[in-house]
Each structure stands twice: as C-alpha cells, then as structure tokens.
Amino acid sequence: MPAAIFTKLSPLSKQDSDYYAKTISQINFKADTKFCSLAKLACSASLDLIYHLDSPPTKKTPTARVYNEYAAPSTVPNQAKATTSQEKMDPFSFFRSSNLKEGDTIHLSSLQESLAQRAFLPPLIASKLSLTLKSLTKLFPHSSKGAIETTFSYCNAAPIKGELKSCPKSLEEMINFSKITLKASKLLALTSKTTEGSDRVLMIEKVKQFNVEKFVACHENFLPFATYYCHSLPSSQIYAVELIEPTTRTPVNTVLAVCHMDTSSWPEEHVAFKILKFRPGQGEACHWLDEIDLVWISDGDNI
Fold it and tell me: Which residue numbers delimit the BURP domain (predicted)?
C-alpha cells in the first residue's frame, strides 16, 4: 500500500468509530469541531483547494481538486469553470506516448498535491452516509458547498464508452470496486515513487510498460473526508518512467504515466486537445500520476 494511503487511514479508535456510526444517522447530527478533529476531516470552507490538470497548483483557487479527464465543461459548476478559465493552462499536463523515449528529455509536471489532509472514514461510518449534495452539506455545514458540488458533478457525470467508474466513500469501498472491476481477489497498488523533479526538465533513462490488460486508476477528489474518483478505461496503458538529471545523469524519480490510446469519446473541449493540438480520436493522451494518485492491478498479472 502506498505511503500516501497510509497517511489517510482513520485515526478514530474503535470506541469512537462505534459511537459516531450510531450518532451520524440521527436527524440533527452535524459534524462539530470535536468529530472533525478526532476523525481528521476537513470541515472548514476556508480551506485552500486546487483544480487538478486544468490549472497549475495554486492556493488562490477555492474549488475542488477533481479528476475526471473526460467530463465536458458543461458538467462543471459555473464557479469552477470561471476559476479554471482564469488560470494559466499547464502545458505539460498531457503528452504523447511518443514522448516517452529513453534518452530524450521531458518536462515533468508538478506531482505535488495541495489538498487539505483528510482521513478516510471507517467503513461502518461511511456506510451510513448518503453521497448527495443535500446530505453532505447538512452533515458538514461549514465545509465548502461549492467544492462538494464540483466533486459530485464529476462523480455523477455519465461514463464515457467502456468506462467503469465509482466514487468510493472509504478505502474498503475503493478496494472492493477495484476487485470487482478487475475480477481479482488480490490487488497490487502502484504509484509514483516521490514528488522529486516536479516541474523540471529531466531525461528519461528507462521506460517500462506494465503487461496488464486492465487496471483501475484512482484520483483523489475533495469531500470533507478522503475520497477518490476511480475508473477503468479500455485501451489504456501504464508505464514506469525512470527520470534522471540531464547533465549529471543522477537518478531523480520513477514516475507512473498513464496513456489513454482511444480518445474518440472524449469531449472536444477537453484540455488535452488544447495542449496536444488534435481532435478526439486523432491520437492518444498521456499524463503523469501525482503523489496521491494510484493504480490498482490484479496481483495475478505478469508485470
């Protein structure tokens, strides 16, 4: 399990978990300071959040960090659309698979995450929650309604052709979705090694393609508790890319890259097409996995 996931495990004791599992279903329950502190949740609307890939990391963007590469802009709330349109588009967010050549240089986008630290809810508490805007804004009245709304707009967006998707409320739900999707009883979690080399030009020393037919990629969204947008898309490939300093050839990082080979079902307005200068279906789009993204594969895969 990646270290980034370990930091999100719930700190609640069994006694506290059992207590809140009983009380959270009560009509008048609202997340107070004590509950948020004990469970390590983000219950303040003043938290700085970022929008992923559509804009560079910034502490001036009070919108949810969401990750649905395929949703059309019409599915995003006006606040989020207005904010991202004002931000400079990161020209290194997407690249072509032909850029992954050993010996070539490539600009690594930022792998650092600026979301507030939040823990997963224990499965017993998570099972009591209804993932609706009305329910969560009632339970977490001081959290950012706009950020929650943005996350739901992506989670509720219609899947593209061949996509299986879920927004699990807990780590256990994430693992169960991945097991069902991959038809596997045991999983391996893959992630980029570190955030070293972020936003720098580096040399590609080695590229390894994982020999897997199917995988589940999970990208963190914002809700008051840790939650992810998980999906599986056909015609996608995973690579482990070893990066070194161009001059000294000193090892810097090993970063995961995901390439979606079929973009024919992506919305024409997608940011990838603005960066890569082609239209849906005219080429593949690749992106890096940042420090809290992860990919699940079957433990039985010959990687």
Answer: 94-299
